[in-house]
Write a structure and sequence with these properties.
Blueprint: E1 3-8, H1 32-37, E2 41-42, E3 45-47, E4 53-56, E5 61-65, H2 66-76, E6 87-91, E7 104-109, H3 124-137, H4 139-144, E8 151-162, E9 167-175, E10 184-192, E11 197-205, H5 209-222, E12 223-225, H6 245-250, H7 252-256, H8 258-267, H9 282-289
Antiparallel strand pairs: 1-7, 2-5, 3-4, 4-12, 5-6, 6-7, 7-11, 8-9, 9-10, 10-11
């Protein structure tokens, strides 16, 4: 399955773990100044690979292409290598490598046209309870792999779907059970299109919620599909996704994308007071989609 990625510091790390511990030199702490000096930022109008969408960045935002974004994600934030992102949106005036820095990872999943007719019928409180249970069930495996247990505390921003623009957003508060460290914030945006979904994920610490929420609402305004790729351009015969809006919130993208599976495991060992870009919900998502994982694929962690 082809994946186009554009990430916002979503599932990516920064300079302190949830437990509040900074990476030691032995862990390979990066030369931040040298890494930052080598980053090549772009501004203005950015055409995304494949011609599916265009970013019209206003003053106050910058863009890193796939190569530069990968350097931040892997070398700067300590994530294991995965699929190269399309790029990263970064607020101007701050570096994604700073303790308070963050970025937006945008991903395109070409799973087909996602029907939104279930959006108004979803019980998000019930969905949250199911996601929390799946997260708890996944902790044994996370601990076995040497990573801290993960707790989905609740919604930091309740899921909201705008049927007029076909854009969905929500935020989750995440923590390490029993830890006094800063809770993580995972802010997600999904833009539905004709052939798939643009995924934008921002990860930060919970105290940054007001700033992230303000900026992410701005991002919602300047990210959209190009003509021919928009939700309204759907025509009979186009491929339809096997899941709906509820599955996007539950974590379908996490379950389907190997890139995020790796991030989920690696994030907590990296550097930000930020947790995974997604709360891996493999078993629940498979039940939600009503099908087992394909032969030869590994279920998502968590």
């Amino acid at each position: 399955m082809r994946r186009i990625l554009i990430l916002l510091a979503a599932g990516i790390l920064a300079p302190a773990t949830l437990q509040g511990q900074a990476p030691s030199a032995a862990q390979g702490a990066p030369d931040v100044e040298r890494l930052e000096a080598g980053l090549q930022y772009q501004t203005g109008t950015i055409a995304l690979p494949g011609g599916i969408a265009t970013l019209r960045l206003p003053a106050g935002y910058r863009f890193l292409d796939g190569d530069n974004a990968e350097r931040v994600i892997v070398d700067g934030w300590g994530n294991p290598p995965g699929e190269k992102p399309l790029g990263m949106i970064v607020p101007a005036g701050t570096s994604p490598l700073d303790d308070a820095g963050w970025g937006v990872v945008v991903t395109f999943m070409d799973d087909g046209f996602v029907k939104d007719d279930d959006a108004g019928e979803i019980d998000y409180d019930k969905l949250l309870s199911q996601m929390q249970e799946e997260t708890r069930q996944g902790n044994a495996e996370r601990v076995r792999l040497g990573y801290p247990a993960l707790e989905l505390v609740g919604w930091a921003a309740r899921p909201h779907y705008d049927a007029a623009t076909h854009k969905l957003y929500w935020a989750r508060e995440l923590a390490n059970p029993g830890s006094s460290g800063t809770h993580g914030l995972n802010y997600d945006v999904r833009v539905l299109g004709r052939r798939g979904v643009l995924s934008l994920n921002a990860v930060a610490a919970m105290p940054m919620l007001p700033d992230i929420e303000r900026d992410m609402q701005g991002v919602l305004g300047f990210v959209d599909f190009n003509e021919g790729h928009r939700y309204a351009d759907f025509t009979r015969g186009d491929r339809v996704a096997a899941y709906g809006v509820g599955a996007l919130v539950a974590g379908t993208l996490a379950a389907k994308a190997g890139f995020f599976k790796v991030l989920l495991v690696g994030l907590l060992a990296a550097k930000k007071a930020i947790i995974a870009a997604v709360v891996a919900l493999g078993a629940f998502v498979r039940r939600l989609l009503g099908k087992a994982p394909k032969e030869g694929t590994r279920p998502a962690a968590g």
